[in-house]
Amino acid sequence: MRPLPKFQYHAPKTLAEAVQLMDTLENAKPVIGGTDLVPLLREAACSPSHLVDLNNVAELNYVKEEDGFICVGATATHSQVAASELMRNAPAVVDAVSRIGSPQIRNRGSITGNLCNASPAADSAPPLLVYDAEVKIVSIGDTVIIPLPELFAGPKINSLEPNELVTEIRFPVPPISSSSSFKRISRRRAFTLSVVSVAAYVELDGGDCTEARVAFGSVAETPIRAPGVEERLTGEEMNNQTISEAAEAAKQSVAPITDVRGTAEYRRDMCGVLLKRALNTAIGRLS
Amino acid sequence: MEVSFELNGEPVTVTVEPYVSLLDMLRDEMGVKSVKKGCEQGECGACTLLIDGVPVTSCLVLAPQVESRHVTTIEGLEKNPLMIDLREAFIENGAVQCGFCTPGMLISAYALLRDNPHPSEEEVKRGIEGNICRCTGFTKIIEAILDAVERIAPE
After folding, report:
1. What is the predicted ipTM?
2. pTM above 0.90, yes or no
3. CATH for B2-76 (3.40.50.2000, 3.40.50.720, 3.10.20.30, 3.40.50.2300)
4. Contacts of A53 in chain B (CB under 8 A)
């Protein structure tokens, strides 16, 4: 038995209250699903004096379309996102969030928490990166929107100030001519960190790719986009040769490390393999 | 602090520290031992229960987070027809050996069949992917759940 460290618990009912608490309390951490945070607390990897539970803030629980964006409120669970009709045009996001952890974890955890945890292996990150997702951050008297890459400051380090709360993740409504896919390699399917993951997004005009976006997880200090690979695809006819060249470019574009989950060489090779699979799935979804 | 919620249909109020997990509160303060303590990281699923009907691992839930919610363990589903079918199917298919994973496994299977009365074998596997069994093996558990499907609504 590993007891949790002592902390004070706060359950605000409105965003205004939550923001106020984050501003006034010393060493406070927000909690949504707790699926990452509670194990960290048990390991004493972090020791907040206060936990601010956002689950009772009703105004943060939504998946909606607004002003040309698909918007996911902070407390929307993976299960909620996976089941949302609005995600139908963003299949890579559904691929990822419908496979995160296990049913129990998806019922509790949120994509906001997954992203704020800033793991290089966060499975919701590559798909949201290829959809050009943005992060809405609220602090007392201030709301800012930043591109998702700016949320990631390093491995398991986010760029938030202590008094800031992420209230929403949003991305532009994808065009009808677009599709995407997310692929990962892991030791087993459920509940394990990705050794490598990739998200591929394409917009097609006939057989030609008019826009391509590619992102990788678990190959760098943060989840990353791969602009060099995207350039290889954009404007090209999508055939086996183009895809193979992009896969080769993918292998050259990453500089992974060796760790307990896999070697650098394996990860590099698998970036190519997974990109091929992801592109083929995304293209297949459009036909 | 005080936490008031509904446990298996009965309103309860418990005085508990906020840094106690729902799992520990149920086992140590309330004597509910069907929720098992395995990994305490949400990986093994032995502590699975329903909050407002949704399966979650209670080791990752803080006690105060169930304020005003409905918590259901297998005790609360004792007379539920679906759970009765599942239970009998588990027994008759030899899906229980040591039994440690069984309460959590039954809760996951219950939620699966409640939401999807005719799952494929693949869907059954995905439905219990958050529950680890280390002695019976998964084959008989999967067979039992598929057998329960037949018992509930034979086609």
Report:
1. 0.95
2. yes
3. 3.10.20.30
4. 62, 64-65
